[in-house]
Design a protein that fits this description.
The chain is α/β, with parallel strands linked by helices and 398 residues long. It contains 15 helices and 13 strands. The longest helix is centred in the middle third of the chain and has 26 residues.
Length: 398
């Protein structure tokens, strides 16, 4: 039996107060919009192909499901879903996920994907993710690192220009808040290439290697953003950046190591973004990131995603109390570890309302579940979360 999307409120076309863009920008400026802005569809704010397939089946929507991101097995949500859910954002992607899917190779060991940085991943046994199996610089000497063929943005300019052009035609005259896929990884991309354990050792024992690797990654991103801003101009409202710096119970590295080695490199990228665009910066990191929130704000981060509410120190009431005038919380709308996949619709209702009560007052909140919607989240819970975000997200500002 097909089900309709019932968000308990008019579509944004019927909302008389603010456009989606105005709604998001108002929240980012720590003011209260007409309702809470709602986000869905990015690399870290998206939906997996399996969850989307289940949702479309539930709604009797017959749309092709294509690949947005190979590694996380995400898909592009269709306007037939985004608009009734009241999603205020639309995402620019500078790579074609379906073309990347074509690079997946069948081997006797399983499906293998090698990205543009030379990092090899294998499809997990459950078919939900590609996990890293080989890091190209794991055993590299400093000289081998210097000679490694890093990607060159000049070779990607035509592809970037084409994707920007397509995006501009689709949304350039729209009233959506225009946002990018996640860019600017320094710490995380470095350990992808070096191997997690080896790169952490480098940060403490071989800083010449760690520093050179991160510097090469930074130079790539500076070249990338130069091309992006050449092509996109002032089109973009939000630039998504990020590095996972934390896990469930703690930071991944000592705060002083971050401040000495990683933070200055983040600063170079974020200064470039601020000096060459009017976009807000939204930083993604999972985990218990609380101790570094002031550092992120200091280097120009305007919003924090995904606000992992189940991690240590990430109580939303405390976060709002201590940092609500410093940074916008972009996420944290519903716990995706337990409540979203395992809870009832009533559980989801209570969870979303609690997060709204904690994070919405005074603006500075954009609703999104904690990270991507995973394969085991029931369609009923997805629809209920966005329905409550729309309806209660208006009441909280009345």
């Amino acid at each position: 039996m097909a089900h309709a999307i019932d968000c308990g409120a008019p579509t944004f076309y019927e909302e008389k107060h603010m456009t989606p863009k105005e709604r998001v920008l108002t929240a980012l400026n720590f003011q209260e919009p007409d309702r809470i802005p709602i986000d869905l569809g990015g690399y870290v704010t998206g939906i997996t192909k399996e969850a989307y397939r289940n949702l479309c089946d539930y709604l009797d929507i017959n749309e092709p499901i294509s690949t947005l991101d190979v590694v996380q097995q995400l898909t592009y949500p269709d306007e037939e879903v985004l608009q009734p859910l009241g999603v205020d954002t639309r995402y620019l992607f500078t790579t074609d996920g379906s073309a990347e899917e074509d690079k997946v190779k069948e081997t006797p060991e399983g499906k293998i994907y090698v990205d543009g940085w030379g990092v090899t991943r294998k499809l997990s046994t459950d078919g939900l993710y590609f996990d890293i199996t080989d890091s190209p610089l794991a055993a590299a000497s400093i000289d081998e690192l210097r000679r490694y063929p890093f990607p060159e943005v000049a070779n990607q300019r035509d592809d970037i220009a084409g994707e920007v052009s397509n995006f501009t035609r689709a949304y350039g005259d729209s009233n959506f808040a225009l946002t990018t896929q996640i860019f600017g990884s320094v710490f995380e991309l470095s350990w992808y290439m070096r191997g997690f354990e080896q790169f952490l050792k480098d940060l403490y024992q071989n800083r010449e290697v760690a520093g050179l690797l991160m510097d090469k990654v930074v130079e790539y991103w500076l070249d990338f953003f130069e091309v992006l801003f050449d092509e996109a101009g002032d089109l973009l409202d939000v630039i998504m950046v990020g590095d996972d710096l934390a896990i469930q119970h703690s930071l991944l590295i000592n705060p002083e190591i971050y401040r000495e080695l990683v933070k200055p490199r983040h600063q170079r990228i974020y200064d470039y973004i601020k000096n060459n665009s009017s976009a807000f910066i939204c930083y993604h990191t999972c985990g218990a990131i609380r101790p570094l929130i002031p550092d992120l704000a200091e280097i120009g981060v305007d919003a924090l995603n995904p606000v992992q509410v189940s991690a240590a120190g990430m109580d939303t009431g405390g976060l709002k109390r201590d940092f609500g005038d410093l940074i916008t919380f972009w996420g944290g709308g519903v716990d995706t570890q337990r409540v979203f996949p395992q809870g009832t619709t009533d559980d989801v209702d209570r969870e979303v309302k609690q997060r709204i009560d904690d994070l919405a007052p005074g603006g500075g909140f954009v609703f999104n579940p904690v990270h991507n919607i995973q394969a085991d989240v029931p369609p009923e819970n997805i629809l209920n979360a966005y329905r409550v975000a729309r309806s209660y997200g208006r009441e909280v500002y009345d």
